[in-house]
């Protein structure tokens, strides 16, 4: 099987590709395509019935919230990306259930331990992200065949990817550091932003306005 043939050949997928290609860097575009492909392959391996178009849109839009236009939003970048995807889908005539699934897939893609128990499109966006960014499943050929992986990386390369994606995360989140409270992106800011002090859950409880 040609792994790249898993990319939907549809009007919706083409429009998503064009929008992301025109508005993001090569880094984010190639990463997003890999996320879809690695997620779709894992879905097939698990026997999951997923909507390829919705998984594709979720994967392609999942990091759009890192872009410069969203850096003053005050919202988590995941929510900004989810809102972009929702607007795109509505403009394309998608129904609200499709919008909800894609919104949720993007909003939760940095929340470990939850998406795997939700709809396949939600679970597989996160699975694709975890495979490409964290290497979760990399050593399991039953999840993604090494030959398929090589073909995907040849089409969508990863030059210096670890350093560059961490810098992209930092650039997108540093202008709104409070949005990293309680999530994995606090680790990014701690490594990349001098003087960053992450919020502390215990301190927040202890210092709340509630009297004891």
Automatic annotation (TrEMBL):
Any one Pfam family match given in the protein's UniProt record, by short name: HD
SUPFAM superfamilies: HD-domain/PDEase-like (SSF109604)
Cited InterPro entries: HD/PDEase_dom (IPR003607), HD_domain (IPR006674)
Protein name: HD domain-containing protein
Domain HD intervals: 29-116
């Amino acid at each position: 099987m040609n792994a790249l043939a898993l990319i939907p050949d549809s009007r919706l997928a083409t429009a998503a590709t064009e929008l992301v290609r025109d508005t993001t860097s090569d880094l984010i575009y190639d990463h997003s395509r890999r996320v879809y492909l690695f997620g779709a392959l894992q879905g097939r391996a698990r026997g999951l019935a997923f909507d390829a178009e919705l998984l594709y849109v979720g994967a392609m839009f999942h990091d759009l919230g890192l872009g410069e236009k969203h850096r003053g939003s005050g919202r988590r970048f995941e929510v900004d990306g989810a809102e972009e995807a929702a607007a795109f889908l509505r403009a394309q005539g998608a129904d609200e259930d499709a919008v909800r699934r894609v919104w949720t897939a993007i909003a939760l893609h940095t929340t470990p331990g939850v998406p795997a128990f939700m709809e396949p499109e939600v679970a597989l966006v996160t699975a694709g992200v975890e495979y490409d960014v964290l290497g979760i499943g990399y050593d399991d050929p039953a999840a993604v065949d090494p030959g398929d992986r090589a073909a995907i990386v040849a089409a969508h390369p990863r030059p210096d990817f670890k350093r560059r994606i961490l810098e992209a995360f930092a650039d997108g989140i540093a202008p709104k550091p409070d949005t990293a409270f309680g999530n994995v992106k606090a680790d990014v800011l701690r490594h990349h932003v001098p003087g960053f002090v992450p919020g502390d859950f215990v301190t927040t409880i202890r210092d709340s306005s509630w009297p004891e």
